[in-house]
Here is the input.
Amino acid sequence: MHSLTLPAPLTLRRLLAVSRPALWVNTVGPLVVGLWLTGRLWTLEPGLLALLAYLTLPFNLLIYGLNDLADREEDAASARKGGWQGARLRSGEERPLLRAVLLVNGPFLAVLGLLLPPAALAALLLSALLFAAYSVPPVRLKARPFLDGLSNVAYALPLALPALALGDPVPALPLAALMAYAVGKHAFDAAQDVPADRAAGVRTVATTLGVRGTALYALGWFGLAGALLWPVSRLTALALWGVCGGLALALHRSPTPQRAARLYPLSILSPWLVGTVAGVPLVYLLARGLWP
Here is the structure.
């Protein structure tokens, strides 16, 4: 009788690489903004503290671990993978990675199921489901043009979690603005992968529209995001138009995948840049002692 030998588990360093720490701001940031908008930024609510922890390594391991498993053949030929832009899976890592995703996420979701009210838990699970559907066959929204980007509204849902957890009204305009931004950013970031995706037979919004069309498509979503933010914070809207709109216009002027790849690091920084501008009023209020 042969004994079943399980592959060795992945190291924490390897799991961190798969989870792309440079992108954690995309999940943690909306939660912090949501807390800010409730007026209870410093709350010690156990459910929200658990959420903050979950949206770091565990949730990003789910997002990018499933993505890497589904895209391992394309990633093997991608010059972008293997560094800060994402791990390149090695032979034999598939089963350990899937096991790690389940083992890391399962306990957190069980605890959050006990700590969060149903509405907040439902929003969190919807976000996780959309991310899974983006990568995993047979749904695999990544290969369904326009649905690929629209599914990225999942990045915005953490902004609603503090309000849902605390029983406050959901900040509708900031939530809608972040959804529009997420759709535009997905399209912009996909432009650099047009040659690789076309070679692999993967249809995306970027392969459908071409680089120039994708730049205009992203610009439209960034314009909408800023317009939705205008009644809430004109300074933030102007920052979003300047940073993200500027990137889209720069790509439109030179619509090549190579240009998109050179602009991509600035796209990664865009949440930090816009968020820093958005934080100026908060710092002012804190300095004046006007924030609770």
Remarks:
- The CA atoms of residues 35 and 41 lie 5 Å apart.
- DSSP finds 14 helices and no strands in the chain.
- Residues 257-287 form the longest helix (31 residues).
- The chain has a mean pLDDT of 89.
